[in-house]
Amino acid sequence: MLCVVNTSAEELRRIALQHFARIGFAGASLNAIAEEAGLSKSSVLYHYSSKEALLAAAVEPAVDRLAEVIEGFTRTGRGAMDDEFVQRFVDLLLSHRLEVHVFINQGQSLADIPAIQRANALIQRLGDAVTDHIPTVRDRIRFGVALGGAAYVLVAAAQWSSEPLDDLDETRAALVDTITTLLADLPVSSAATA
């Protein structure tokens, strides 16, 4: 029998998120998450009615933050040329790297979960805005590599690197500099977004 410990809802969401990112949603089980949290499965189900509800609780703060970042991108009319957008995007990645990993890498297979549907719609909105603002395929790819590459590096560093990115200030500065360099001189039209 498991000894029930005083695990907060926030701690349970963090453990579940790590589990979903490491194992994948399909391979994750409430039993394994409960065991890792030092809880019984019924204790987890007391707080979250299903594995889907636990995933939604784990990723929704990041989806809310993504919405703010994308709203800033689409509102400026300058898109990638806006330094504030790059900084906000990097801060999103640093604060929510596992959530971003889950909804980017598993988003299509989890499209029936409302929180993931919302993340997918936001990513589509960003893609539409990029198409509206950046006229050439070459430059859209450069934009995608800059943002997608930054997201990948953070996830890869957390999962596969023997040297994690411990100095967040240095990592943040390096990401902002790299993305800004990749996006330098990117031709941006003033097309309005919907």
Task: Tell me what the structure shows.
- With 194 residues, the protein is mostly helical.
- The chain has a domain at 59-183.
- It contains nine helices and no strands.
- It has helices at 9-23, 30-37, 41-47, 51-76, 83-95, 97-105, 114-133, 137-159, 168-183.
- Helix 6 packs across helix 8 (137-159).
- It starts with 8 loop residues before the first helix and ends in an 11-residue tail after the last helix.
- The model is unreliable at 1-5 (pLDDT under 50).
- Residues 29-48 bind DNA.
- Keywords: DNA-binding, Transcription, Transcription regulation.
- It comes from Naasia lichenicola.
- InterPro entries: Homeodomain-like_sf (IPR009057), HTH-type_TetR-like_transc_reg (IPR050109), HTH_TetR (IPR001647).
- Pfam families: TetR_N.
How many extended strands?
0
Tell me roughly what share of residues is in helical segments: over 70%
Mean of residue pLDDT? Answer: 85
Strand content: under 5%
- Report, as a whole number of angstroms, the end-to-end distance: 55 Å
Helix count equals 9
Q: Roughly how many Å is the radius of gyration?
A: 18 Å
Structural class: mainly alpha
The general outline is elongated
Biggest sheet features: none
Q: Can you tell me the residue ranges where pLDDT is under 50 for at least 5 consecutive residues?
A: 1-5
N-to-C order of helices and strands: HHHHHHHHH
InterPro entries: Homeodomain-like_sf, HTH-type_TetR-like_transc_reg, HTH_TetR
DNA-binding region: 29-48
GO molecular function, one term: DNA-binding transcription factor activity
Pfam family, one: TetR_N
